[in-house]
Design brief:
This protein has eleven helices and 14 strands. It has helices at 7-16, 19-27, 29-48, 50-54, 57-71, 75-83, 118-128, 151-160, 181-186, 222-225, 245-250; strands at residues 86-94, 105-109, 135-139, 168-171, 189-191, 195-201, 204-210, 235-238, 255-258, 267-268, 272-273, 287-291, 294-298, 316-324. It is α/β, with parallel strands linked by helices. Strand 3 (135-139), helix 8 and strand 4 (168-171) form a beta-alpha-beta unit. It binds fe (ii) ion.
Amino acid sequence: MVGILNWPELEQSAQDSDPLTWLKGRLGPLYALTRLQKEALLEADRGRSRLRQLTSLYHVLDLAVPLALRMTGTMRWGQRNARAILVAKNEVFLPNLPETFDGFTILHLTDLHADISEAVIAALPGVVGQLEYDVCVFTGDFRGKAYGPHARSEELVVALMSAIRQPTFGVLGNHDTALLIRGLERAGITMLMNENVPIVRGNDRIWIAGVDDPHHYRMDDLAAAVDGIPDDDVVVLLSHSTDGYECAADGEIELMLCGHTHGGQICLPGGLPVMTSSRHPRQLAAGPWRMGRMAGYTSRGIGTSLVEARFNCAPEVVLHTLRRTR
Ligand SMILES: [Fe+2]
């Protein structure tokens, strides 16, 4: 019935509503409740099986790695490494890129783990503030831990946004709660929850698509993320991890941008990771890679987990420049 809906009023009431009501409006009730239920199960599981946690590999490493670094006197060295952000550059050659997008540059930030990586987050505006780019993307893990409060991480990312130019897009990682979406979107990050947006230049366009976390919550839906995009158009897919990369390559994605691994964070000389928290081949753990005709890039990210230290694996922001193959 025409005239019943008052959009400005609805928008205002959605902004004023409680976080759950807002999220149900943003994602749809089924999606929002399924995501939050999965998050609640993780929290409940932590409460129930304390013994299992204490003996889990993650918990053992959480204690053993900082202890080992302190005992060997290498903690400060690792901390200095973890705060020295590099700017990596990656050129991606695409045959179907419209001429008008030749040179289009994407600033890629990932794995801020903001509330447990405050020193490197404080250094970030000084690095990104000097960069030239057309869009900025975040590929998840805004929060430090995979559970617990998210307010401090949200606060730090919101503050960071004053140093980031628009437009900016993002996806959630396995450390993120969907309750972050409202604050991130209000700060100017358009979150792509199995969604896409076009970037238009004159009569041409490319697309940024994003999937929800495919690693732990497995709420990724690639079909929904590319819904409505014409077959021949260039698609840049944001995904927290490389999970689903085979489908993305078959699904005619041109470029897949990921994080999650931290590049190993603590690596052997030559950047050889000891652990990657990934089910995939080592060549997908850091830097550029390729699957068929799809280009991919896994960023080493900015923050740290387990311990604020990096070895042979500097934190990075990445500038991806799209080039039209002649
Ligand atoms: Fe991470």
